[in-house]
């Protein structure tokens, strides 16, 4: 099948300050047993089901209402337009890699409804129509008006890149121009309480070449943290200090991480070093003090917010699916901006764990929160009144091939591994086509065969994940010692020939992860990790003991075993642990240790499953951080 | 000094279904070194400062406005009246035990302002005056209208019992009659979103003999949990099921615990067994699965709410001071209802720990939340916009003597211990005067000398706290073996003579408390308890190590030492522990255990202080649950 070449997911290919250039979404074709079936479910089940939800919940009717086609009340929450836009973005990405006349017709129809709802002056937000027209731009803090515009712009850019059509891009540029005529240095201060439009506007600049959009994105970021504050100098809105002075991820997690996406996009275009420094500080704050081992972001239900350093409760982890997606989007920008694989490490961890857990295996149910411990009450839902997460998962999955590779002047960079092909153009000219074969994430053997190469030498950069301690590389059957940078990748520079084969071996022992001692709930506990996957114990696999009572001795051997029929095919970890009796605790909450008998113990067989797959069978307790004493 | 005899704090002395009868507030005179100085600070510092706050924040001006004396806007939050009422209740209690012409004049003046704001029909809520008059009783769920009435009624009952004056009681009965004419079986359904008035109305019934108030209290409780729900059947408002079907403390903690107060009051008057069973189930839910070791209640910031079973995070404990007070109030009712000392155990734990931590040693700063672990950022404040806690602490302290003793037909029950005298009338006739001498809570020796006794025999019931494992009793210098009931008390039945002396010895070893294994954050940790006090480590006493890095070996000896100059005089616990180095964790959040070196350790001297006294010196980390491995 021949595809129309699309643009990249985030088009940093001409960004002057980006080290790497993302490849087009169509450059990578996944044919693996892990992601490819998920992308198929996304196309075949999730996208149609979400469109149905958008219809049935009145989300699309809101556009018809705004266009005067239906005389009805606005339905749902004031930011419901954004769900339709995210669905459209997901559909556009999907069409890029898998043309589908039915989906394309559906998307065209939705775009027609959107376009018809736009006002003469370019304004578009179906909530602020008719009787609420006077309220436009009067409550930027709460009502997500510019946020919705941002999602429309992202959808339009994706649609244009995927299909070449300008139907939605024209709507988006008119709306962006409306914003640009409203806000700006000499016009009106203000920014959205929920960041999103910043990164969208930079992308619109990239797609159209109009610098006013880049300026407006920069303007919106600069609005935050002034005195007096845009939003009372509240950290919830990242308004406590100017962006360049922000050193800790704080407040609403999705807002924070969308802000960093936008700021990273600005840096890629402007090279602003103060922004770059702030991004580095925020990234350290996030990944070194405030991130779950699954990549999840946001510790607090109150405010859907980041907590203090090391505040990472497991049962009450908020870890919104959208926040995990926002982290992937941010780390993708940082990876291309800097070329450093530490960002790909976070991206990979989050994709396989904290993001993927947000979706049921059948593609129809969603988590809003992704806790790391549960008693069996937390279950995925078909939809939400506030339905930000479902279409966000859909757009992430539909765009996933775009996250696997980048190019640079020196060569080709592989960030993620899966069976499939990549066909990329080098900036210096020439095409590289390569094919990867691997059972990743179940097995760390990756065989990469060069199928086409230019005559000039180039470097193949293979990311060595931070979870891997003993990677080795063979070239055409011979062990080699590639240049290993400090930044986690093997570099092989040579003149490549079609047929050259690189075998990257990433051993996947079962690691017991421990966390910083100040994470109060993880003391004396380990999380199991194998390759990029975090594991958990789920009750349905353990009839002999409550999984919260299981203690895993340090010397207990854990054996990986691939079980084809389980949860779509997963490698489980099996071993012997012990279960501690709780007979001393009937009707008791506190007891003096002095009079407490040692708990009875009995051996139990345990089976750990990948975290992303939990809650797809019968409900029961689950735990990621297993007691180790 | 001769005092006018007051009524009890909660007057169950004629309740047909109560086993015990609380003694008048004036029956117990505290002369100890622990509580008596706190009550003095409450009188001399806290009450005047709170009155000043009520004036300066417009809380009293709101009454002047409602009375037409001032042409100003309503100031503050819609339920601000209740803070004035709680202050008035506290002042009334204080006047009962410590007459004070200045305070009495202040209180009379405040009462005059309150009375002047009352409408012809008895309605009184300063928020719903003038332009908001049409909104009366239109949003019972959110606007605390009946809640405020409840606090007025409680203040009025306390004022009447303490002073014999009817000035406030007349206001309260008119308001209660206004409620009674508005709500009821044949009138209008509804109840307040925030419970409070239920217990107040039962007390008003007790004070006035008017059964309509008891019926209205019962009616309000019965409104909850119907289909369709009063408040959408939301558990936040305890509206998920009818009260008799409630088995788990849930939703907003203060609301839940005020509801149980009201229900217990109803049971004392009616003997309703379904209510009694529900109270028992709720008490088990609370104390066996959802209560902090400090007695604190409420695990979640979101909704100021109870969490799931065993969900008891330490750093993010919400544990509102008001919820601790509500628990004391509920357990006091249950104690007198049943005569069972398990309720006094919870009351004592909560008074000495989760309640008392709400107030600074100087009596001028307050905690709203009382966490069990902190990094030094949580500090007491002088006042709050939502200032429910400060006057709640004041009324609890001012009424404290009333919680020490009860009588029954069989004799005298001592619940709490402190140096002081109790002069009580037995229901069967005769007066008992006794004096207790003790250094409680620092020392568990309590010497009780009978100073006056009737000729007929009676039983002296001495509570043996649940924290004590080896209590023994001497009578007139000879060891005796009093009848020990299953319910935690020593009973000595005899004909008593003036001069008889009972020595109750409650050994106070330092106990290491452990918690149910499903409390995720307490795994491998102990809390130190000595007598009724829970201890903590505070950074200011530990210059050598972050207190979060301290590990207390099981065999480390901890030595109590009374330090007169410290924190108003406290017994600290001193010992040797170890500090674990965190050098492996610089800029790291997660690491594989396989490559992690054992942390370096070094011996550190530790000094644990009573939890209630933390955050009175320089800010720094604090921890109750200390790692023991």
Description:
2 copies of one chain form a homodimer. Chain A is an alpha+beta fold and 629 residues long. The first copy, chain A, has 4 domains: 32-223, no CATH class; 234-403, Glycosyltransferase; 416-505, Immunoglobulin-like (Sandwich); 511-627, no CATH class. Chain A is 32% helix and 19% strand. Chain A is built from 13 helices and 24 strands. In chain A, the strands form 3 sheets. In chain A, strands 3, 15, 16, 17, 18, 19, 20, 22, 23 and 24 form a 10-stranded antiparallel beta sheet that branches. A 7-stranded antiparallel beta sheet of chain A has the order 2-6-7-8-14-10-11, with no helix packed on it. A 6-stranded mixed beta sheet of chain A has the order 1-4-5-9-13-12, with no helix packed on it. In chain A, strand 16 and strand 17 form a beta hairpin. The first copy, chain A, is globular, with a radius of gyration of 25 Å. The N and C termini of chain A lie far apart (55 Å). In chain A, 57% of the residues are buried.
Key descriptive features of the protein:
4 domains, 10-stranded antiparallel sheet, Glycosyltransferase, 7-stranded antiparallel sheet, 13 helices, Immunoglobulin-like, 629 residues, homodimer, globular
How do the strands and helices of this protein lay out in sequence?
2 copies of one chain form a homodimer.
Chain A: E1 21-22, E2 28-30, H1 35-56, H2 59-66, H3 81-97, H4 101-116, H5 145-163, H6 167-182, H7 197-208, H8 211-222, H9 253-270, H10 273-289, H11 321-338, H12 341-355, E3 373-374, H13 389-399, E4 405-408, E5 411-414, E6 420-425, E7 431-438, E8 445-452, E9 458-463, E10 472-475, E11 478-480, E12 483-484, E13 489-494, E14 501-505, E15 510-515, E16 525-530, E17 533-538, E18 550-551, E19 558-563, E20 570-580, E21 590-592, E22 601-610, E23 622-623, E24 626-627
Parallel strand pairs in A: 5-9
Antiparallel strand pairs in A: 1-4, 2-6, 3-23, 4-5, 6-7, 7-8, 8-14, 9-13, 10-11, 10-14, 12-13, 15-16, 16-17, 16-24, 17-22, 17-23, 18-20, 19-20, 20-22
Helix pairs in contact in A: 1-3, 1-13, 2-4, 3-4, 3-5, 3-13, 5-6, 5-7, 7-8, 7-9, 8-9, 9-10, 9-11, 11-12
């Amino acid at each position: 099948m021949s595809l129309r070449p699309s643009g990249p997911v985030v088009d940093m290919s001409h960004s002057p300050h980006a080290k790497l250039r993302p490849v087009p979404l169509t450059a990578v074709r996944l044919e693996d047993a892990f992601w490819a079936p998920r992308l198929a479910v996304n196309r075949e089940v999730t996208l149609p089901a979400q469109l149905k939800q958008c219809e049935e919940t009145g989300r699309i009717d809101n556009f018809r209402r705004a266009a005067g086609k239906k005389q009805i009340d606005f339905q749902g929450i004031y930011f419901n337009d954004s769900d339709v836009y995210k669905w459209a973005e997901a559909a556009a990405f999907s069409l890029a890699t898998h043309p589908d006349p039915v989906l394309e017709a559906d998307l065209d129809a939705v775009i027609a409804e959107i376009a018809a709802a736009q006002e003469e002056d370019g304004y578009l937000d179906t909530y602020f129509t008719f009787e609420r027209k006077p309220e436009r731009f009067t409550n930027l803090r709460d009502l997500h008006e510019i946020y919705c515009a941002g999602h429309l712009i992202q959808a339009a850019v994706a649609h244009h890149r995927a299909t070449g059509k300008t139907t939605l891009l024209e709507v988006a540029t008119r709306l962006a121009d409306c914003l640009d005529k409203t806000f700006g240095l000499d016009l009106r201060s203000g920014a959205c309480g929920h960041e999103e439009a910043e990164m969208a506007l930079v992308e619109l600049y990239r797609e159209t070449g109009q610098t006013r959009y880049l300026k407006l994105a920069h303007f919106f970021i600069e609005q935050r943290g002034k005195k007096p504050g845009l939003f009372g100098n509240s950290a919830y809105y990242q308004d406590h200090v100017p962006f360049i002075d922000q050193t800790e991820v704080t407040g609403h997690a999705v807002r924070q991480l969308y802000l960093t996406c936008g700021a990273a996009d600005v840096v890629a275009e402007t090279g602003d070093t103060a922004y770059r420094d702030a991004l580095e500080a925020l990234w350290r704050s996030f990944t070194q003090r405030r991130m779950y081992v699954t990549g999840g972001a946001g510790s607090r239900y109150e405010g859907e917010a980041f907590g203090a350093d090391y505040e990472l409760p497991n049962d009450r982890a908020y870890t919104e699916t959208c926040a995990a997606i926002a982290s992937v989007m941010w780390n993708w920008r940082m990876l291309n901006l800097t070329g450093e694989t530490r960002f790909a490490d976070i991206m990979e961890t989050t994709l396989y764990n904290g993001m993927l857990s947000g979706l049921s295996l059948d593609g129809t149910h969603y988590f809003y929160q992704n806790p790391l411990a549960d008693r069996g009450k937390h279950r995925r839902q078909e939809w939400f009144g506030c339905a930000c997460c479902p279409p966000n998962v859909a757009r992430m999955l539909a765009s996933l091939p775009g996250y696997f590779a980048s190019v640079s002047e020196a060569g080709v960079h592989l960030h993620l591994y899966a069976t499939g092909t990549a066909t990329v153009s080098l900036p210096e000219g020439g095409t590289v086509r390569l094919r990867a074969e691997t059972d990743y994430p179940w097995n760390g053997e990756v065989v990469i065969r060069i199928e086409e190469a230019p005559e000039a030498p180039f470097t193949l950069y293979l990311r060595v994940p931070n979870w891997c301690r003993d990677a080795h590389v063979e070239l055409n059957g011979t062990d080699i010692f590639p240049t290993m940078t400090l930044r986690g990748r093997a570099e092989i520079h040579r003149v490549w020939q079609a047929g050259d084969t690189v075998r990257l071996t990433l051993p996947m022992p079962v690691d017991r992860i421990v966390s910083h001692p100040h994470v109060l709930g993880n003391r004396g506990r380990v999380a199991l990790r194998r390759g990029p996957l975090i594991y958990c114990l789920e009750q349905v696999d353990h009839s002999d003991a409550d999984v919260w009572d299981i203690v895993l001795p340090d010397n207990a051997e854990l054996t990986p075993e691939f079980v084809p029929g389980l949860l779509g095919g997963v490698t489980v970890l099996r071993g012997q642990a012990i279960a501690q009796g709780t007979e001393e605790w009937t009707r008791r909450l506190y007891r003096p240790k002095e009079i407490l008998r040692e708990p009875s113990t009995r051996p139990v067989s345990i089976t750990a499953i990948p975290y992303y797959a939990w809650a797809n069978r019968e409900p029961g307790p689950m735990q990621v951080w297993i007691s180790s004493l």
